[in-house]
Structure formats: structure tokens, C-alpha cells
Specification:
The complex is a heterotrimer of chains A (325), B (331) and C (293). With 325 residues, chain A is of the alpha/beta class. Chain A contains 12 helices and 12 strands. The two termini of chain A are 38 Å apart. The model of chain A has no long low-confidence stretch (mean pLDDT 87). Helices cover 34% and strands 24% of the residues of chain B. The mean pLDDT of chain B is 89. Chain C is mostly helical and 293 residues long. Chain C has one domain: Orthogonal Bundle (MetI-like fold), CATH 1.10.3720.10. Helix content of chain C is 77%, strand content 0%. In chain C, helix 3 packs across helix 5, helix 5 packs parallel to helix 12 and helix 10 packs antiparallel against helix 12. Classes of the chains: A alpha/beta (325), B alpha/beta (331), C mainly alpha (293). At the A-B interface, helix 8, helix 9, helix 10 and helix 11 of A face helix 6, helix 7 and helix 9 of B.
């Protein structure tokens, strides 16, 4: 499979009154055609900034200061604003955590979905309306005609997210970026949306997806490969199987042990300390102050992001060494 | 009523009137809590799980009399707290405390930590300034903070630390009952683990009874001894944790448990998952008969006509479903 | 040393606030101007006996209608009194009146507003309808009516202004109180067992004090203006009190030839009202910034 998206050494900084917040410190990430990649991490790890940097949606005081984002072989960071506008929505589209807020509150669903379709496809209003009805049906909304007349606030969170997904896939994009689309929904509704996304993948309506979440369970269910972020870097990237069965980075291991699971009642593992301050990040490996296996070299040198096993990438000095204890 | 129960709730109701029309007449009610009965034993952790809008937060606040109920009875240590006024109510506040979901908003933004944590002592005891200081420091150390934190304002702390401050304030008077309303919903996974562990160890130390409310079944499972499943203001199932995860009798409980995404690859659960139709109905116009009948995959005509009662079908295992026997045979 | 450290830590934000305030005042010309005027006004009032060149009540009929000169910087009036000294002493009356009345307004208005906002229901209805009635009248006219009914005197002027003025504070306090009382930290305090009284004054009040202080600062100028207005109409201070409004009124007969008799006290009123307005605006900006922190 060829690489659809290849992010290399991406750096995004925010210039605030407190100082420079180094939100992304060299992110590497690849997505192959037809693949779902999960991007997991805690608050402030840089998941959303990565997504927004790929879409070039970083507003001042933020700025992408370095790196490359190759999409279909072209570097998105080198495109003009006009060329980038054509990529957004048509080639790469995005869905968000709060669908009700992301929709325009004063326009009906009909207006918004038809506008989106006509912006990205060369069709008449009538054709767009037909496509819209078909899409709303495809995302599992009963009675699409009724939905079209509604305003966003008249929809529940789950319905609004379905509408948003319909709009996002309307142009048959190559890549869908999903930024925590189920985090604000209830479990039973989340299950519906995950089921829908899986079905749309099978039907070929979604070809490739970057799925951002803080919930490792959701990632396990949906993704082929998972990238774990910490302190503005991807610190481990491997197949879902390997991330859960053979995690190599100490942070990934700790995180997995910290989640409460049904039927396990031992004391939860906790990671000492706090997430790094991205204005004054720790020297060397960002994780070293909290790492149980920390050695001197971790304080001094930033570990490189390297391929350890076949397609298992890790940024840790001791990743190749089995059981450093 | 047994002596082993710290809290007994009987047929508790909280209806919010909806006003409409020109004259703002009452046109209907939101039945946030609609006839809930249960009991909590000393020193156990009782969990209430449900999705947003099921009324679990209203229930928590009603039990603490932060909201006045529309009907029903609440007994705390054998006394009906709904008749409490003045000093009695103040004394009840000393014995029953709450930790809120959002630690970012539960702390007064213009008060330093020392003043926040010492406030219960100032209200309920006549300790000297020095004694109060010592008690506050002792409590802060128990929740993992130190003396230097005493003079800081809430906005200087991370979410996890703020929740520790909230917990310190709630436990400083050594209450008998602590209501935890989604205590980690606003926190990250690694911080959540720390808070849950802290709550468990504090429970051992202070011998507190916990009433834990959450939408997250994994957390409920990790923390609780007994669990109640709530939907549209009603309890569908109450059981000990062991029973509930082995043998779910209500179809909603089954769907809820199967909906949790597990952090394991290829668990094969996706295929076995029960995906519920539609969404939670509005509590203003709940469905006739069983409230779950609109989404239940096994609903029968009877379910839409008659509301099932919550009945004890096994020792300590309550369920409100007409067809739980048939469903159990179905597997 | 340890005690000092603790004190510094405890008051870190108050110290920062003062620093921030100083910085913002330094950056804005109008704020500096306002602060300068008010500082001079207050200093004048405090040190009036040392600044005034003679007794403000001393008449000297041989020296009537003297234009401004070195000996009489603001000239003299129809009774030969030194206008400069009278303006200087007048600042005491204005300041005393402004501060006393504003304090009364602030206390009554805020308390009633907090009670109305916190308890709601019938209490709220009654208090708010009273404010509606008072605010339905133009404040000067109502003040005239009250002052006329009570009889002209300085004390009655203060009572009249207080009756007219408190509803503003009450409305502001009520609106903010209703917003704050629904915050989670207020519910948290209730859950601890904090009494209503303590809740209102120890938890809600500190959160709503900022806009009230801005209001009070801007209002101080208005109070002084209103008091001068009543004095001018003969309903306030009585002769020979050196009250600015009264002085303007006394000089009005001679305005075409001896402009200084009304002119200088008028200028004093203008400057002080302006000063408080500028300072109030600056304070609002500063408190806005602090809110955002």
C-alpha cells in the first residue's frame, strides 16, 4: 500500500504571553491508503494540533514552524492558500467533537449540507438535494426529508454528528480526520456512531481515516494502527495488535495499566508527576521525569524516532532492549 | 429498615414543571427522578450508572437536599432528613458531603486553598486558628498536596490537583456519606487513575460510605460493591457488582455493558455488540409502558402497555423487566 | 521571615493586581489625567487650611468684585470674600459629601440587590418594583422633590441623593448575584453547610465587587454634581457655607461682568466630575483585564 499521508518532523509553536508553547516537537506519522490510524494521547499531548496542522488550520498566535506534510506526494505546507482551500473538504475533510457547535445555528441542515456539496462538486441544486438525501440515509438518519428542514439545535448530539459525517463524506474525500467525534456522546450513542463509521468504511464511503481520541478502547476497536502522542511527539506507532500486546514505550505501557477495565480490581497503576510544561519542557526525553526506567542518557539526549521491529516505531533510548529493569 | 443501612431512599421523585403559553401555566413535567427506591449500607460503595439526562445528578443532589424532592422519603441513619431544618440540616451537611464532577468550577476562584479547605471547620467546629491550620495541612497531605499549596488560588492547579482540593474539603469533617458525582469525568486517564486510587485508600482510612455516580461502567465496576442502572429517572436493575457483570437481567444493562469499547485488540465484541435503536426519549414525554420499550431489541406488545415493576428476582438482585426470565433463557 | 513569606504568598494576587493597575494607569493618558485630578482634589480637601490664603467666610466689603490677581488668585465676590479660599474649602464639603453618600448608596444598594438576587420571589419583586418607581423619575427632579420636602440643608441633600441613587447599585448587584449564585462553587459551599448570610457576603459578594467599584467611582462625580445642583437651586447647603453649587448660584447675578465669581467654582465642579469619570473608566478597563486572567 502506498502512503497517502506522510507527516515528517512537524513542528507547531504557539507564541503566547507566557512564552513559546512548543505544541508539536517533530511529529512523524504515516497513513496508508485505506487505513484507519488512531492518534491517542492525553490533554495537551498535541493530538488536535497535529490534525489542525495537517489541515493548515492553525491561527495566530500559533504557527507551523517546520516539517513536511506530504499528501498524495505533495507537501501541503508548500501549497498556496487557494490550493489548500481546494484540498480541504474535497480531499481531506474533518469532523469534530461538538457537532452542534460546529454547525451554523441559524441555517437549516438543508442549506448547510447543500452548500457543502455544491462547494465541492459540480452539481445543480436539485442534484445536490438528491445527493444530500441519499447521504443522510446512508448515515442512518431516519426520515432525511424531515431532518433537512431542521436547525442544528433541534438535533440531538448523535443526530448532529451523523449530519456532520454526511457533510464530511459528501465529496468522497481521500482522508477523513475525526477529532474525538464521540467524546461528548453517551456510550450507547457512541456505539452507534462507531458502528456507522465501520459500516461506511466497509461500504467504501470513507477510504482512509485519522481518528483522534483519548479513549484507548475506542482506538482498539476502530483502528488498524495506533500512534501514541506525548508532549507534542508521537512516541510510539505500531499496529493496534502490537500497541496493546507488546507496547515498547514506557508511557504506552503505563497508560494501558492506568485504565480501569471490567473485572480487574487491583490497584490502578499511576504515572508519577504531571504532563510536561510545553513552555519549559524537560531536557532530553520528555517523559524522563515520570519514567520508571529512566537512565542518565534520558535526561541528556532526545531519543530518536526509529523503526524497531517491522513497522513498529518508538522514540525511546531503551526501546530495543527487552526488560531494562 | 435495617441498622446496616446508612441511607434508605423510598419512592423518591423530582419533577420539574414546564411552563408554557401566555399565562405561563404548567403544561407538563420533566420527570428527572421518577420513583426511585434503594438502600446504601455502611461503608460500601454504591454506584449509580446511567447516560446523560437519566437523572443521576438530580438524584445525587436531592439526596443531599441541595434540591428539594417532589415526593418520597429519604432516611439517613434512620431519620427522615426531609423534615430537617436549621441546625438539624446543618448537622446533616456535616455528615454527608459531595464531590462534584467539574473541579474547575467547584472551587471559589477568589479564595486561597487554605480558606477553601478550612471553611467546613470554621462553620461546624470552634477550633482555634492554629488547630484549623494543622487540620487543613494534615488533610492536604493526605490527598497528596503540601503546605506550599495552601496559599495558592485554584486557577494555579491542574484538574487533578483541584479535584484533590475538593476531596480534602469534603473529607475534612470526616463525613459518614460521600456522594461522588462523576468525580473523574473531566480528567485524563492517568490523572483519573490517581484520583480513583486516592478515593479508595481514603475510604479505607476514614471508613466512609460512598455513593458514586458515573456514566462510565468501567469506573463503576472498579469502585463499587453494588450498582444501580438508571434510565429516564428510573432504576432498571440493582445488583451486587459480581451479579451484575455475570448475569445482566435487563436488556438495557446488557446493551450498556456491551457498548463499552475495551482497550484490547480484536476482542470480537464488535460483532456481539447490541446496538440500540434511536436515542433516549425525552423525559417530558416518556413512552407508555416500559420506558425502554422504544429502544429495546426484545420489546413485546405488553412492554408498551404496562410498566414493569422493580422486583427482587434473586437475593439482592432487582430488575424491572416483564421478560427477564425469557431473556435469560435466550442467553 | 517565614511569616513575611507566607504573607507575600497569600497576598500575591492582590500585590499583582496593584502592580497591574499601576501599569495600566501609567500607559493611559486619560487614566493618568483622572488620577492626577482626583489626587489633587483629595489633597486640597485634606490640607485646605494650609492652602487657603484666608478665612473663606471673612467678608471685606472694601474689596468687593476684585478680578483675579496675585493677592486674590480667583478674585473676590460681592461680599469681598476670597474665592480661591472658598473653592479650596468647598472641596472639603464636596469630598465629604461625595464619599459619605456613595458609601451609603453602595451599602444600601448592594445589600438590597444581593438579597433580591439571592432569595428571588416576593422579596425580589418588592425591591425591584421600588427601584423601578425611583428610576422612572429623572434623578435631579426626584432629588429636588425630596430635598424640598425635607427642607434645605446639607444633611437633607445627602438623604435626598441617597434615596435617588441606590437603585443603580441594587440592580447591578442583583444581576451579578443571580449569575454567580448558580455557579457550582456556590452550590459546593451550600453542600458544606454554609449559611445563607455567609454565602451572600463571603462567597457571592467578593465575586461581584469589581463592577460595583467601577460604578461607585463613576458615580462619585455624579453625586458631587447632583449635590452642587441642589446647592445651586438653594435646596442644599445654605449661605454662607462655601459649597460650590451655592457659590455658582450666588455669582450668577454678576456673571456678565464678574465672571470669576461663578466661573471658578463651576470649573472646580467640572474638573472633579471629569476626574472621577476618567478614573472610573480606567478602573473598568483594569478590572476587565483582571477578569480575563
Amino acid at each position: 500500500m502506498e502512503k497517502l499521508l506522510d507527516v515528517r518532523d512537524l513542528r507547531t509553536y504557539f507564541y503566547t504571553y507566557r512564552g513559546v508553547v512548543k505544541a508539536l516537537n517533530g511529529v512523524y506519522l504515516t497513513i496508508k491508503d485505506g487505513e484507519v490510524v488512531g492518534l491517542v494521547g492525553e490533554t495537551g499531548s498535541g493530538k488536535s494540533v497535529t490534525a489542525r496542522s495537517i489541515m493548515r488550520l492553525i491561527d495566530p498566535p500559533g504557527r507551523i514552524v517546520g516539517g513536511n506534510v506530504f499528501f498524495e506526494g505533495r507537501d501541503l505546507l508548500k501549497l498556496s492558500d487557494r490550493e489548500m482551500t481546494k484540498i480541504r473538504g474535497r480531499k481531506i475533510s474533518m469532523i469534530f467533537q461538538e457537532p452542534i457547535i460546529a454547525l451554523n445555528p441559524v441555517l437549516t441542515i438543508r442549506t448547510q449540507i447543500i452548500e457543502t456539496i455544491m462547494a465541492n462538486r459540480d452539481v445543480s441544486v436539485n442534484e445536490a438535494e438528491e445527493i444530500a438525501l441519499e447521504l443522510l440515509e446512508a448515515v442512518g438518519l431516519p426520515n432525511p426529508k424531515m431532518i433537512m428542514k431542521r436547525y442544528p439545535f433541534e438535533l440531538s448530539g448523535g443526530m448532529a454528528q451523523r449530519v456532520f459525517i454526511a457533510m464530511a463524506i459528501s465529496a468522497n474525500p481521500r482522508l477523513l480526520i475525526a477529532d474525538e467525534p464521540t467524546s461528548s456522546l453517551d456510550v450507547t450513542i457512541q456505539a452507534q456512531i462507531l458502528d456507522l463509521l465501520n459500516r461506511l468504511m466497509e461500504e467504501g464511503r470513507i477510504s482512509s481515516m485519522l481518528y483522534i481520541t483519548h479513549d484507548l478502547g475506542v482506538a482498539a476497536e476502530l483502528c488498524h494502527r495506533i500512534a501514541v502522542m506525548y508532549g507534542g511527539r508521537v512516541i510510539e506507532f505500531a499496529s493496534t495488535e502490537e500497541i496493546f500486546k507488546e507496547p515498547l514505550h514506557p508511557y504506552t505501557r503505563s497508560l494501558l495499566k492506568a485504565i480501569p477495565r471490567l473485572g480487574y480490581y487491583d490497584e490502578l497503576y499511576t504515572i508519577p508527576g504531571r504532563v510536561p510544561d510545553l513552555v519549559n519542557p524537560p531536557s532530553g526525553c520528555m517523559f524522563h521525569p515520570r519514567c520508571p526506567y529512566m537512565k542518565d542518557v534520558c535526561k541528556k539526549e532526545i531519543p530518536e524516532y526509529v523503526e524497531i521491529d517491522n513497522s513498529h516505531y518508538v522514540a525511546c533510548h531503551f526501546a530495543g532492549v527487552k526488560d531494562v529493569r | 429498615m435495617l441498622d446496616e443501612d446508612i441511607l434508605v431512599v423510598k419512592d423518591l421523585k423530582k419533577y420539574y414543571p414546564i411552563r408554557g403559553g401566555l399565562l405561563l401555566r404548567i403544561v407538563g413535567y420533566v420527570k428527572a427522578v421518577d420513583g426511585v427506591s434503594f438502600n446504601v449500607k455502611y461503608r460500601e460503595t454504591f454506584g449509580i450508572v446511567g447516560e446523560s439526562g437519566c437523572g443521576k445528578t438530580t438524584l445525587a443532589r436531592t439526596i443531599l437536599r441541595l434540591i428539594e424532592p417532589t415526593g418520597g422519603e429519604i432516611y439517613f441513619e434512620g431519620e427522615n432528613i426531609l423534615s430537617y431544618k436549621g441546625e438539624k440540616l446543618k448537622d446533616f451537611r456535616r455528615k454527608a458531603q459531595i464531590v462534584f464532577q467539574n473541579p474547575y468550577m467547584a472551587l471559589h476562584p477568589r479564595k486561597i486553598v487554605r480558606d477553601i479547605v478550612s471553611e467546613p471547620l470554621k462553620i461546624h467546629t470552634d477550633l482555634s486558628k492554629e488547630d484549623i491550620y494543622d487540620r487543613v495541612l494534615e488533610m492536604l497531605e493526605k490527598v497528596g498536596l503540601s503546605e506550599e499549596h495552601m496559599f495558592r488560588y485554584p486557577h494555579e492547579f491542574s484538574g487533578g490537583q483541584r479535584q484533590r482540593i475538593v476531596i480534602a474539603r469534603a473529607l475534612i469533617l470526616n463525613p459518614k456519606l460521600l456522594v461522588l458525582d462523576e468525580p473523574t469525568a473531566a480528567l485524563d486517564v492517568s490523572v483519573q487513575a490517581k484520583i480513583l486510587n486516592l478515593l479508595k485508600s481514603l475510604q479505607k482510612e476514614f471508613k466512609t460510605t460512598y455513593l458514586l455516580i458515573s456514566h462510565n461502567l468501567s469506573i463503576i465496576d472498579y469502585m463499587c460493591d453494588r450498582i444501580a442502572v438508571m434510565y429516564l429517572g428510573k432504576f432498571f436493575e440493582i445488583a451486587s457488582k459480581r451479579d451484575l457483570f455475570k448475569r445482566q437481567l435487563h436488556p438495557y444493562t446488557k446493551a450498556l455493558i456491551s457498548a463499552i469499547p475495551l482497550p484490547e485488540p480484536d476482542s470480537g465484541r464488535r460483532e456481539r455488540r447490541i446496538i440500540l435503536r434511536g436515542e433516549v426519549p425525552s423525559p417530558i414525554n416518556p413512552p407508555s409502558g416500559c420506558y425502554f420499550s422504544t429502544r429495546c431489541p426484545y420489546a413485546q406488545p405488553l412492554c408498551r402497555e404496562e410498566e414493569p415493576r422493580l422486583e427482587e428476582v434473586d437475593e439482592g438482585h432487582f430488575v424491572a423487566c416483564h421478560y427477564w426470565r425469557e431473556l435469560e433463557d435466550l442467553g | 521571615m517565614k511569616i513575611l513569606d507566607k504573607w507575600l504568598m497569600e497576598h500575591k494576587y492582590k500585590i499583582q493586581d496593584v502592580k497591574l493597575m499601576m501599569n495600566m494607569i501609567r500607559e493611559s493618558f486619560l487614566a493618568k489625567l483622572g488620577l492626577t485630578i482626583i489626587t489633587m482634589f483629595i489633597l486640597t480637601a485634606i490640607f485646605a487650611p494650609f492652602i487657603a490664603t484666608q478665612d473663606p467666610l471673612m467678608q471685606d466689603l472694601t474689596n468687593r468684585f476684585q478680578p483675579p490677581s496675585l493677592e486674590h488668585p480667583f478674585g473676590t465676590d460681592h461680599l469681598g470674600r476670597d474665592i480661591f479660599s472658598r473653592v479650596v474649602y468647598g472641596s472639603r464639603i464636596s469630598l465629604m459629601m461625595g464619599i459619605t453618600v456613595t458609601l451609603i448608596l453602595f451599602t444600601i444598594g448592594t445589600t438590597l440587590g444581593l438579597i433580591a438576587g439571592f432569595f428571588g420571589g416576593a422579596v425580589d419583586e418588592i425591591i425591584m418594583r421600588i427601584t423601578d418607581i425611583i428610576m422612572a423619575f429623572p434623578s435631579l427632579i426626584l432629588a429636588i422633590a425630596v430635598a424640598a420636602a425635607l427642607g434645605p440643608s446639607l444633611l437633607n441633600t445627602m438623604i435626598a441623593i441617597a434615596i435617588v441613587g441606590w437603585p443603580r447599585y441594587a440592580r447591578l448587584a442583583r444581576a451579578n448575584c443571580m449569575q454567580v449564585k448558580n455557579e457550582l462553587y456556590i452550590e459546593a459551599a451550600r453542600a458544606i453547610g454554609v449559611s445563607n448570610l455567609r454565602l451572600i457576603f463571603s462567597h457571592i459578594f467578593p465575586m461581584i465587587i469589581s463592577p460595583l467599584i467601577v460604578q461607585a467611582t463613576i458615580n462619585l462625580g455624579g453625586v458631587i454634581l447632583l449635590a452642587a445642583g441642589l446647592g445651586f437651586l438653594g435646596l442644599g447647603a445654605q449661605p454662607p457655607t462655601p459649597e460650590w453649587g451655592l457659590m455658582v448660584s450666588e455669582g450668577r447675578r454678576f456673571i456678565s461682568r464678574q465672571w470669576w465669581i461663578s466661573g471658578f467654582p463651576g470649573l472646580a465642579i467640572l474638573l472633579v466630575a471629569l476626574g472621577f469619570n476618567l478614573l472610573g473608566d480606567a478602573l473598568r478597563d483594569i478590572l476587565d483585564v483582571r477578569m480575563r486572567r
